[in-house]
Amino acid sequence: MEYYQYVAGEISLATLAEKFPKQFTEAGETALRISLGPDSHEEVQKLIQKRLQGCRKWALVGGPPCQAYSLVGRARMKGNPEFEKDERHFLYREYLKIIVDHAPPVFVMENVKGLLSAKVDKQPVIYRILKDLSKPKKAVSDYENGLSYKLYSLTKEGHVTEDIDPADFLVKAEEYGVPQARHRMFIVGVRSDIDVRPRVLEKTEAPTVRQIIGGLPKIRSTISRQKDVFSQWEENLLACAQTPWFKHMMKDGLADVGQQAKIYLRQDMPEYSSSSFYKAPLVMTDWFADPNIRHIPDHQARSHMESDLHRYFFAATFAKVRGRTPKIMDFPEKLLPNHKNVHDPEGDIVFADRFRVQMPDRVSTTITSHISKDGHYFIHYDPLQCRSLTVREAARLQTFPDNYKFEGNRTAQYHQVGNAVPSFLAAKIAKIIQTVLDEMPD
After folding, report:
1. What end-to-end distance do the CA atoms of the chain give, in Å?
2. Given 1.10.10, 3.40.1010, 3.40.50, 1.10.8, which CATH number is that of 57-205+425-439?
3. Residue 275 — φ and ψ, nearest 5°?
């Protein structure tokens, strides 16, 4: 019960560590931060051997760094002649070396969707990676040693052949019960001497954003660089009705949005900017809920600039009325940010989806670590909460159980959530891998 006291804020992390010194020591030894490469190769090799202790039924799970494959990373490097020579394109070879060193019965390699379209020397990288994963020893040295793997998709039956469509390795999380449109590559390898074929994931309808986070306490944002006083926050939001952008909505073809905005401004607004009151979602209850939780952690609103407060209110109201999140060209002109990401030197609008509301009756968009920088892509659908998603809301959309508490400051917590594989999907994949290991002959 001490852990739940810590989650509730009744005891500190130091106190929890004092009560369970052995477990804290073991946890610290389990998670290590090591940069893979020639300098650490021997250290990693010995570490894995020590952890395995001769175990024959185990799986290697992981993925090489994805900066060179991600669409965002490639957009930033567009036009750079050195990008195709970037060593990050080939960091997957460190993963291959681990496979060669330890010959795992099964491996799972995960990476971003951008791997499908990434190219080096105008050739798709994915085909090279698939070939190297099939015969890893040949990929990292000048000869083969007989070690080979059959590759499998988690969405298509049968092992991979040379004419495989790489898109078959793409797993769309929302098709498997995750309330989020998160698309990632998963490649499963089974050592060729093992005659076991992995099952595929079973499709399940995903719940909506509202079903997952709608039951959490309603909280409001705070205002950047100001002491948090509800009356001041309320006054700031009510003041938008007197601004030029609000008055111009009637002239800018946004009369329906303006009328709804007036209705919202007459309603009671959430008084508090954080809440620990716990209520499990009505869907996926067995997955999220924990009867021992008395207070839910990490449900505190972040602060926003006054101008963004108005933009979030407009965006959420627009989404409610029009049934879609607004593009930047939908905003009243006087509400547009004075930012270089709005117009290019010729005056044309760029980054049309600069602000994005998470629509309540759909799955969310991909929760990324960018949520740690600003909340523009992750606006809550309730106009009166007038904020971006909290760490707990983002964690629920990533299907972390409610008893999982994130450490570090809020920026670090958002990074942890955004960089994760959805827990519910990970558990489904783990069951498939467990079945492969169970069916292996002793």
Report:
1. 39
2. 3.40.50
3. -160, 145
- Distances in Å between the Cα of 254 and the Cα atoms of 240, 251, 261, 333 are 15, 7, 10, 12
Query: What is the pLDDT at residue 77?
Result: 46
Name the region of 399 (left: φ>0; alpha: ψ -120 to 50; beta: rest).
left
Q: Is the dihedral of CA 204, 205, 206, 210 positive or negative?
A: negative
Residue range(s) occupied by CATH 3.40.50 in the chain: 57-205+425-439
In DSSP terms, 300 is beta-bridged to 274
* Residue 402 CB neighbours (<10 A): 22
Q: How far apart are the C-alpha atoms of 149 and 191, rounded to whole Å? A: 4
**Cβ atoms within 10 Å of 182's Cβ, excluding its own:** 23
Residue 418 near residue 369, CB atoms below 8 Å: yes
List CB contacts of 250: < 8 A, sequence separation 6 or more. 258
**Long-range pairs, 402-410, Cβ under 8 A, ≥24:** 402/278, 402/280, 402/288, 402/289, 402/290, 402/293, 402/296, 403/3, 403/4, 403/7, 403/290, 403/292, 403/293, 405/6, 405/7, 405/297, 405/298, 406/297, 406/298, 407/13, 410/300, 410/302, 410/372
Angle at 408 between CA 405 and CA 410, to 5 degrees: 85
pLDDT the model gives residue 160: 65
Alpha carbons 128 and 150: distance in angstroms, whole number: 15
- Nearest CA among 349, 385, 165, 366 for reference residue 274: 385
For 427, the token pair is 């558990």
Structure confidence by residue, pLDDT tens digits, 351-395: 678 899 999 999 999 999 999 988 899 999 999 999 999 999 999
